[in-house]
Amino acid sequence: MKIAFFEVTKTQQDFFSEVFSDFNLLFFKERLSLDNVDMVKDTEIISNFTSSVIDKEIINKLPDLKFIATRSTGFDHIDLTYTEAKGVKVCNVPAYGSETVAEFAFALLLTLSRKIQEASQSLKENGDYSISGNLQGFDLDKKTIGVVGTGRIGKKIIHIAKGFNMNVLAYDLYPDLNFAKENNFEYKNLPEVLSQSDIVTLHAPYIKENHHLINKENISMFKKGSYLINTARGELIETSALISALQTGMIAGAGLDVLEGEREFKKGDIIPMLDFPNVVMTPHIAFNTREAEMRILQTTADNIKAFISGTPTNLVK
Known about the structure:
Strand content: 15-25%
Mean pLDDT: 96
Structural class: alpha/beta
């Protein structure tokens, strides 16, 4: 059986080579695309990450494909309707880093709230080890954080927020009322969460119904001077609406690990908001710790083994 891995580092190649030593393996540092799909046209199993968009055109060039093991929780980069029609099974890694991503969301928030980025840049550029410029931040203590999406990551966010003595509001289509009671917070509708929160942090999955969950219609509902954090999916936010809100001061700042259309970005492209002084932006690295990577690799290996044995796990289609 032939297995092709895309978007893999040397360390990841070594891991899979050891685990699947009896199989024919192909490794690519690059994402799966029309430029290289012909190199794996007789492959039965593909493992990819989020930059490899597996759509109808790609799938049609893989006539022997039986199984896709994405090394991510999200699977919006795979055309599940077409894979199902073609009889191709798809699995994901449902839980590898709820703590990891939640910690990073707070890293973005603290960078904004304490003006760490500005202070570091000022010191490096000016060499003046003193309080200069507008470097005064604000406490998280007693601020209200609005958590949009209370799955595994959202729940970790709430635990951390409680450690900072923050007030919590939450929005979820399927509220966990027992969890809310245990952790002393309240679910409200989305407009209420947006209008009453000092910080809004997004942890909803990206599905068709959530496209532009934050948009030009509801971004005006935010409390003036509030902050927005997104470590989920870029397409949850309408970029033009966020740009306008940042420019007018409706939103005081944003911490973004994801951005709409990020899969299409190439080196040298103009990235929206990258130069905004009130935006902290990172290239989709909230998941990226040593511990989380090992959990991803091990779960992916287990998913592939389970499929080969005829008992697939973590199926999304």
